[in-house]
Design a protein that fits this description.
Length: about 130
């Protein structure tokens, strides 16, 4: 049976997803642009739920992200987090960013990674970047 804590966590994730202000806003011309203080500050959060939302945004909208401002935060999430699912999101976010620092980080992580699932995800990401 699922615990109360599980439902509470699920509720928080759903609430954050739907209640969090949009990461984009319309400028005067009607085009959407990133709101800097949202993604760049929220990714530094200690909340894993908030970090996941930010990583998913980076994966979905990589062209709206200033990779120089966010790359080290994504790397830190990968390094400090022990939850495989969050680390997989960080790998995918690094793939989508795809700058030189992200590629070098993934190459180093591939050689150090003992978990076969994460190692395979890194390998796939590196192949997609180089293709």
């Amino acid at each position: 049976m699922l615990s109360h804590k599980y439902f509470q966590s699920l509720f928080v994730i759903v609430l954050l997803f739907y209640a969090t202000p949009s990461f984009t806003a319309a400028n005067d011309s009607g085009a959407k642009q990133i709101i800097d203080f949202d993604i760049y500050e929220k990714i530094k959060s200690v909340s894993q739920d908030t970090q996941c939302i930010c990583l998913r945004y980076i994966i979905q909208e990589p062209e709206k992200i200033d990779d120089c401002r966010i790359i080290f935060d994504v790397m830190a999430i990968y390094q400090k987090n022990s939850i495989v699912e969050i680390r997989l999101l960080a790998i995918k976010a690094l793939e989508k960013v795809g700058n030189k620092a992200a590629i070098e980080f993934l190459k180093n992580a591939y050689h150090k990674q003992a978990n076969p699932e994460l190692r395979k995800a890194i390998w796939v990401s590196l192949n997609k970047i180089s293709a």
